[in-house]
Amino acid sequence: MSVAANRLPVRLQVTEGPQRERGGDRSIMAHPVSAFQAAYISIEVLIALVSVPGNILVIWAVKMNQALRDATFCFIVSLAVADVAVGALVIPLAIIINIGPQTEFYSCLMVACPVLILTESSILALLAIAVDRYLRVKIPVRYKTVVTPRRAAVAIACCWIVSFLVGLTPMFGWNNLNKMQRTQELNASHTEFVIKCQFETVISMEYMVYFNFFVWVLPPLLLMLLIYLEVFNLIRKQLNKKVSSSSNDPQKYYGKELKIAKSLALVLFLFALSWLPLHVLNCITLFCPSCETPHILTYIAIFLTHGNSAMNPIVYAFRIKKFRTAFLQIWNQYFCCKTNKNASTTTAEPGN
Fold first, then answer.
1. For position 338, what pLDDT does the model report?
2. G-protein coupled receptors family 1 profile domain: from which residue to which, for each copy (predicted)?
3. pLDDT score of 250
4. CA dist list (Å): 339 to 97, 126, 324
5. Contact residues for 117 (Cβ-Cβ < 8 A; gap 6+)
6. CA gap 192, 220 in Å, rounded
7. Is the distance from CB of 197 to CB of 108 less than 8 angstroms?
8. Above 50 in pLDDT, residue 116?
9. Nearest-angstrom CA–CA distance, 271 and 98
10. How far apart are CA 61 and CA 65, in angstroms?
11. pLDDT (0 to 100) of residue 348
């Protein structure tokens, strides 16, 4: 989910309305796709082809498997929905912007905002998952009465509402329109103009760094780090207690929680690893305007953010037994044209 799939250095290009008419259709035509852009597009398409089916498989697994119906997996579905949207919506938009079409300012802004919404949705889903795992080990007896399906649904709805508010903030006015008008000495109320649609052209770096990163990305990541450290601390305290012959169930419970917590912490680690480089580049752009970032680093950061949407299904398949079992069941029933007769009993067993 790249907030800068189009942040490569370009010269700001503004075309006044009358000039567009005189110049004909050529003034809004995109440049021919270069070999480098073709390689970029190919990699993006490959990421999308992995991300969309993989995350649809996650949603499908939760829908068909009763063992995956607790609150944690509902939050995982919310995360998967955001990742599906990355492959199906954000990556195509990033490809279009990379080609460099010329369009009206707010049209470009509408293209740039979806990635901001989906990024925040992913972060809040990861935060909800972390809080849920903490409650499971902190209050295991009362957990099911505290974390009900209704409350989980309300939490998911709140996460998406906040994500839309944060991601659409540039549409409410925190954007580069006034800066562009001052630079070009245009009066927006009298003159129409089009721009070469680039992320940094329309999205304010002050918004990206001070508001998006310093308020809505970095603090949640640090909070999740603290939560998982406490989760591991609580679990290890329980596992290190001297076990009597009648306490096998608590040991089994906390052992399973430890495995799942490790897997979900890995998801968080991969998210941070994928997103922090791009935010660091944004900080460099804001705080050191004269610094030039090598294009290859920018592209690597972009591919990391988009590629993160394809990583989670792989983590679930290799690390969480319930997902692995559900994936195999789906494969056997719907793709290999055979029914796994033991699937219903297998998936009902408590897994990792």
1. 56
2. 54-316
3. 79
4. 45, 34, 16
5. 163, 164, 166, 167, 168
6. 40
7. yes
8. yes
9. 23
10. 6
11. 41
The separation between CA 284 and the C-alpha centre of its own chain, rounded to angstroms, equals: 22
Question: Which CA distances in Å does 176 have to 17, 200, 287?
Answer: 19, 8, 17
Q: Which two tokens stand for residue 193?
A: 């103009």
Each residue's pLDDT tens digit, 319-337: 999 999 999 999 988 888 6
Q: pLDDT (tens digit, 9 = 90+) per residue, 155-180?
A: 999 999 999 999 999 999 999 998 88
The model carries a pTM of 0.85
